[in-house]
């Protein structure tokens, strides 16, 4: 009995900016797909490269909470993505590749480095004269 593949799902949450509140769930990619995704964004790839990226995103998008102007839920399909701005697609790709690569999302709240030590706790005595002088 072998070890069966079980693709991971990554929930991408957008907490600020133009897409605040958006959540997109993406299925993991293979190594070959990841390499194609990273190589498809270059200037030399042009429209064909961007089309491949959008198609790959659509084929791996499990769900999202995107709505149209009337509040109707949009299905996670290529047709829905084609109505979006390129900036959204690029942002999803960036977050998705970070998640797949294991890059941690930024902390929601700034990390507290702790309180600074009070000045009076540091001994400020004069040094004893050196025995060598």
Automatic annotation (TrEMBL):
It comes from Streptomyces yokosukanensis. This is Tail assembly chaperone. Residues 104-133 are annotated as: Disordered.
């Amino acid at each position: 009995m072998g070890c069966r593949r079980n693709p991971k799902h990554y929930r991408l949450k957008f907490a600020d900016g133009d897409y605040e509140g958006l959540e997109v769930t993406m299925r993991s990619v293979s190594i070959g797909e990841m390499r194609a995704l990273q190589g498809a964004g270059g200037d030399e790839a042009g429209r064909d490269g961007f089309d491949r990226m959008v198609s790959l995103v659509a084929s791996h998008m499990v769900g999202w909470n995107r709505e149209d102007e009337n509040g109707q839920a949009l299905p996670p399909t290529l047709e829905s993505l084609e109505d979006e701005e390129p900036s959204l697609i690029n942002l999803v790709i960036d977050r998705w590749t970070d998640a797949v690569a294991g890059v941690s999302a930024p902390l929601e709240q700034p990390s507290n480095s702790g309180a600074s030590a009070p000045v009076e706790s540091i001994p400020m005595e004069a040094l004893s004269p050196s025995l060598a002088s």
